[in-house]
């Protein structure tokens, strides 16, 4: 069957292209659907017409975005422009700081006299900046049809919020009657898993970003708002996102002064401890049933297939597939395995 499928690729390519076009709007629609559904349900349970509740949430969200845009966007844009203009001097400052450490008597005992730290680390920094630039460019290619996404996502989200509760019933019509009870339970588990993960991740990441921004301001870190936004985006990725997001923050702090980099490291470590022991247990109620190694492998696959969007969508897709496989195993294989064991 696989061999025959390769021979009719000319028939499958249009279908794959259509899926590729629709995938990004659907991913963003699902993200906003689960983010806004608690608010819509809150008003709907208080006898507010569901359509009016959705429009009211849209209005509040639009007003909030406009307000944040007027207050935050000019500062953020100025910091991005300043960082872009000062990038060569920042690299030179990084090299200067490394050279000063290289002449430190204590640190020189751990390094060979022939090794040139400044040259090597500056080269690594140049390569990292280039790699990040290339990766961001590749990710933006996935979002090149921005107007299509911006035009379709609000409409899709509106109908999902309005008629999303009917979707399980529609899907169950394609399931044989004998398995509809298990199918309904499976869809309920999938919905609960997605809702808990997406809403919880947004809440936890938002709290973390605010705490990080306050910490950056306390130590007078340059580009504090920009670095807090970058940390927010990376912290949406579980486990490894916090480490990736810490790299640009520590580099900027180190260029300013090594002592400031140490303070930033202490602040970020303390915030991560608070997040792991206080915030996440209260938001999620329990830890995600995903092994860290599995998470890393899933994120690598998602990033290779869809770039930044794939990284953000990898864990939810994995959770859905895991629930589906578990239900299929219980229905069709568990009893047979028990019979063979007996």
Automatic annotation (TrEMBL):
The keyword Membrane is assigned to this record: yes
Keyword Secreted: no
Pfam families: AI-2E_transport
Transmembrane parts of this sequence: 20-40, 52-76, 140-161, 194-219, 225-255, 262-284, 296-321
Primary residence: membrane
Gene Ontology CC: one annotated term: plasma membrane
Keywords carried by this UniProt record: Cell membrane, Membrane, Transmembrane, Transmembrane helix, Transport
Location(s) in or outside the cell: Cell membrane
Domain of life: Bacteria
Membrane topology: Multi-pass membrane protein
A GO BP annotation: transmembrane transport
InterPro entries: AI-2E-like
Family statement: Belongs to the autoinducer-2 exporter (AI-2E) (TC 2.A.86) family.
Protein name: AI-2E family transporter
Source organism of the structure: Cohnella candidum
């Amino acid at each position: 069957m696989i061999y025959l499928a390769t021979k009719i690729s000319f028939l499958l390519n249009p279908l794959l292209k259509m899926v590729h076009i629709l995938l990004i709007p659907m991913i963003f629609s699902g993200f906003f659907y689960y983010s806004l559904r608690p608010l819509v349900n809150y008003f709907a349970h208080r006898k507010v017409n569901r359509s009016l509740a959705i429009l009211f949430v849209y209005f509040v969200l639009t007003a909030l975005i406009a307000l944040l845009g007027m207050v935050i966007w000019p500062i953020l844009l100025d910091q991005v422009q300043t960082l872009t203009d000062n990038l060569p001097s920042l690299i030179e400052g990084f090299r200067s700081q490394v050279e000063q450490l290289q002449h430190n008597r204590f640190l020189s005992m751990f390094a060979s006299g022939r090794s040139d730290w400044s040259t090597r680390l500056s080269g690594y920094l140049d390569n990292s900046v280039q790699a990040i630039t290339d990766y961001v460019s590749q990710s933006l290619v996935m979002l090149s049809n921005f107007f299509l996404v911006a035009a379709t996502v609000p409409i899709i989200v509106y109908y999902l919020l309005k008629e999303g509760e009917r979707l399980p019933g529609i899907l169950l019509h394609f399931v044989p009657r004998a398995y509809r009870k298990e199918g309904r339970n499976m869809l309920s588990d999938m919905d609960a898993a997605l809702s808990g993960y997406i809403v919880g991740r947004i809440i936890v990441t938002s709290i973390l970003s605010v705490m990080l921004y306050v910490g950056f301001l306390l130590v007078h870190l340059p580009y504090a708002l920009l670095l807090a936004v970058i940390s927010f985006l990376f912290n949406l990725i579980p486990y490894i996102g916090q480490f990736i997001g810490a790299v640009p923050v520590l580099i900027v702090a180190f260029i300013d002064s090594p002592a400031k980099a140490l303070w930033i490291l202490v602040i970020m470590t303390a915030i991560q401890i608070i997040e792991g022991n206080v915030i996440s247990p209260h938001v999620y109620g329990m830890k995600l049933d995903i092994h860290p190694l599995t998470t890393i492998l899933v994120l690598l696959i998602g990033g290779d297939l869809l770039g930044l969007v794939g990284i953000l969508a990898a864990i939810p897709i994995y959770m859905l597939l895991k629930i589906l496989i578990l239900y299929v195993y219980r229905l069709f294989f568990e009893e047979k395995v028990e019979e063979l064991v007996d």
